């Protein structure tokens, strides 16, 4: 199916202001929330008190839109109210002094999965801000690497820059269960998993982005993860 896709080149994207939802980065330290009907911008009322100066690497909404989370260059993960745009929790130093490069909610909105340039992937409890799990064994110190769950949230996937592999952990035990060749020339910059089936897409770190065989490849996780692991479903 990938072979039949038409290659479409897209120019590099660098948003100065984030809209209400996006997976891009911004030079601003605080996400800008917009009303899509009036284009009115809403900012957190407690921005000055937060003392945030580092720009954002990623922002993502929870599944019901009640909250959104930001991953920042100062290593912090911050949770924001999706209606008032107020910061409701700051996990300062989530990745030490290294950049936090990605953050996303679990389906039940109880946890946030983050990735950072300290070569760690971490799972945080939203209610307490406490670290629940840490997934180690994948080196990522240069690119804005992603960490994602598979469609059942039984596995965590991220990128190893040094070996150019997709690393798969058991979400509960934090043990590595597979290391899959990315088949890219360089380490993938982006990784996204299907929300409905055992497949993910990776993208190469190039100046332009596209969809098709040359720029991205879809791999079936079930074909690569050992059968004894997949039988736990």
Question: Could you write a compact summary of the structure shown?
Answer:
This protein has helices spanning 47-50, 221-224, 227-230; strands at residues 8-10, 33-34, 41-42, 56-61, 67-72, 77-81, 87-91, 100-105, 111-116, 120-125, 131-135, 147-149, 155-160, 165-170, 176-181, 190-193, 199-203, 209-211, 216-220. The protein has a single domain, classed as YVTN repeat-like/Quinoprotein amine dehydrogenase (Methylamine Dehydrogenase, Chain H, 7 Propeller). By secondary structure, the chain is mainly beta.
Strands ordered across the widest β-sheet: 4-5-6-7
Helix percentage:
under 10%
Alpha-carbon Rg, integer: 18 Å
Report the total helices: 3
Query: Mean pLDDT, nearest integer?
Result: 76
The assigned CATH architecture is: 7 Propeller
DSSP strand content: 35-45%
Q: What is the CATH class?
A: Mainly Beta
Shape: globular
Q: What is the total domain count?
A: 1
User: Uncertain spans, ≥5 residues at pLDDT below 50?
Assistant: 1-24, 207-220, 225-233
Largest sheet: 4 strands, antiparallel
List how many beta strands DSSP finds.
Answer: 19
By oligomeric state, this entry counts as single chain
**Could you state the CATH homologous superfamily?**
YVTN repeat-like/Quinoprotein amine dehydrogenase
InterPro entries: CstF1-like (IPR044633), WD40/YVTN_repeat-like_dom_sf (IPR015943), WD40_repeat_CS (IPR019775), WD40_repeat_dom_sf (IPR036322), WD40_rpt (IPR001680)
Subcellular location: Nucleus
Keywords: mRNA processing, Nucleus, Repeat, WD repeat
WD repeats: 49-90, 101-134
């Amino acid at each position: 199916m990938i072979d039949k896709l038409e290659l479409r080149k897209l120019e590099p994207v660098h948003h100065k202001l984030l809209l209400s939802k996006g997976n891009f980065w911004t030079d601003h330290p605080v996400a800008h929330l917009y009303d899509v009907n009036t284009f009115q911008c809403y900012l957190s009322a407690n921005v000055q008190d937060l003392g945030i100066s580092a720009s954002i690497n990623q922002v993502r909404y929870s599944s019901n839109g009640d909250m959104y989370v930001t991953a920042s260059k100062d290593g912090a993960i911050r949770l924001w109210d999706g209606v008032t745009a107020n910061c409701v929790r700051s996990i300062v130093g989530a990745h030490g002094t290294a950049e936090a490069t990605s953050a996303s909610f679990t389906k039940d909105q109880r946890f946030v999965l983050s990735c950072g340039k300290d070569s760690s992937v971490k799972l945080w409890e939203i209610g307490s801000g406490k670290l629940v799990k840490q997934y180690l064994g994948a080196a990522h110190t240069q690119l804005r690497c992603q960490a994602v769950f598979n469609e059942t949230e039984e596995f965590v996937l991220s990128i190893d820059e040094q070996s150019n592999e997709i690393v798969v952990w058991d979400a509960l035990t934090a043990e590595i269960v597979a290391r899959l060749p990315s088949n890219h020339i360089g380490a993938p910059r982006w990784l996204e998993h299907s929300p409905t089936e055992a497949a993910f897409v990776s993208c190469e770190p190039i100046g332009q982005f596209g969809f098709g065989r040359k720029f991205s490849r879809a791999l079936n996780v079930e074909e690569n993860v050992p059968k004894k692991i997949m039988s736990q479903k």
